[in-house]
Description:
Keywords: 4Fe-4S, Iron, Iron-sulfur, Metal-binding, Oxidoreductase
Bound molecules: flavin-adenine dinucleotide
Protein name: FAD-dependent oxidoreductase
Structural class: alpha+beta
Pfam families: FAD_oxidored (PF12831)
Oligomer: single chain
InterPro entries: FAD/NAD-bd_sf, HdrA-like
Shape: globular
GO molecular function, one term: metal ion binding
Amino acid sequence: MSDYESKINRLIGRWEGKKAEGKETIEQHKRKEERDALRQTVTHTNPNASVETFRETMETPVVDKCDVLIVGGGPAGISAALAAARASTKESPIDVLIMERFGCFGGVITTVGMETLGWYRYEGCTVDSEGIGKELERVSKRMGGSDRKWAFNDSECLDTENFKFIADMLLEEAGCRTLLHTSFVDAIMDPDDSTKIIGVAVENKSGRGIIKAGRVVDCSGDADVAARAGARFTKLNRKDAMGLTTVFNVVGVNKEDFLKHIEKKPATYEDWSKTWQQDTTGKEDDLKSPYMQDEFSELNDSKKEKKEPISFGGSWSALTEKGEATNLNLVHMKGFDPLNAQDLTKAEIMGRKGVMEAVEALKKTVPGFNDVKLRNVAMTMGIRDSRKIIGKYNLTGRDVASQAKFEDTIGVFPEFIDGYNILILPTTGRFFEIPLRCLQPDTENLYVAGRCCAGDMVSHAAMRNMMACTVTGQGAGVAAAISFRNKEPASKVTVKDVQAELVRQEVNIHGYVGAGAEWASGMTSGIKSKI
Ligand SMILES: Cc1cc2nc3c(=O)[nH]c(=O)nc-3n(C[C@H](O)[C@H](O)[C@H](O)COP(=O)(O)OP(=O)(O)OC[C@H]3O[C@@H](n4cnc5c(N)ncnc54)[C@H](O)[C@@H]3O)c2cc1C
């Protein structure tokens, strides 16, 4: 084992210790009993009610039917919808519907304002899954929705406002049906098999309705569908879960003055450790980071004194020529449960107040920011961490850090770990394969993609990243379409067929590197967007 491998293994080992301290709980909603009780209440006499009987007795109409339903329109959901629709053929078309509770698609990209799908791409990061994640960056650039790079490396920064429109265009071009302003509220299970999902109940301005679906892909970030369907999941307690963040943008930055200030006082990843106890492998420490902390000392001291669970400091992103500083990831709240509406309310309000305070601190302490004006506060605060399903396979930190390979790989992700006070940047070219099984919960005909897929804390710190979410989204979308077409239960889908379709969709499922690589021969299939 090389020195590097020993080091990274020691880091992961410390994490496993944390897990052993019991910070993570396994939970499961009492689904079967709840369902049986519900069925008896609504059907009075017929405990084996079908969805149609539901309709008559609850007066809940079946408002739509589809082959593949995607719940949630973030990076995972968009990728799942595009992938499922692109798996359609003339001979066997797949009807795909994507639903989202807010008024736009994009998830954390558009509703929180996070513009960097691949900020980890420092020199030495040679492998990505390609597929839809990279396509989102390419299409955004082509459509004028990405006109700048991240501060200290070659990553594209998406214009998160523009991305709302780009997501609409991509979904339309692929032939997906769309439903906005619609919240998932419950899972509809097969009356004869309470472990099999057959649709969802939704709420919107038109009222409550049922959408029947052949396969459901849960891309809600919080595994809402899986939890309501009775699947097992893990959840960290309030104290140990990653913090919530209110992102904001300002205008009026004097770019020249600010960049001079940064030059004089450059920040590195080692500086992160001044505030957060953070482990790295050492190779990250001297890399430049768009990071601010000392600028908020006074504000942080006053909050500490008042024992308020909010802190200031973190990253800026790219600056535009027009003096906009977007994606300011500087206001963090800790100790709130993102699955509790009261906690969410308190944190939203605290975060907005924090943004006003942060703007004043920036004006006072940061050269170039003296005259800035708040341009917007994210429409919702960002959540990093809530439920993670228990899957057929639960990815581990060891898998991430040992270049794991799986027979049921659906794509790869670089060895990039960011979270729970650990930072490993993928500067070595190392990467791991992602197995389909970590998208398969113990509910039939359901796949789960995005940040709530199955794994331990360390693997979550890798898999929560948006590019990884596009890999699981695309994998889940293809698997849902193939299992529906093959008439196989989602848990028994033919993996070879899923992989063949992913390769046709130009996903680098094994992480071959460089020009001339075997997989690259499929690059001309024309499956990507022509927009
Ligand atoms: C502040 C912050 C900064 C981050 N920075 C980065 C970064 O720089 N780079 C990076 O790669 N990653 C970053 N991440 C992580 C990354 O953004 C998320 O992990 C990722 O967006 C998760 O993708 P997802 O598709 O699983 O979920 P989301 O992006 O959360 O999308 C889920 C979607 O489902 C919808 N939804 C939820 N519940 C329901 C429901 N009941 N009914 C209907 N719709 C529903 C939501 O409205 C949302 O649109 C950051 C996260 C946060 C919070």
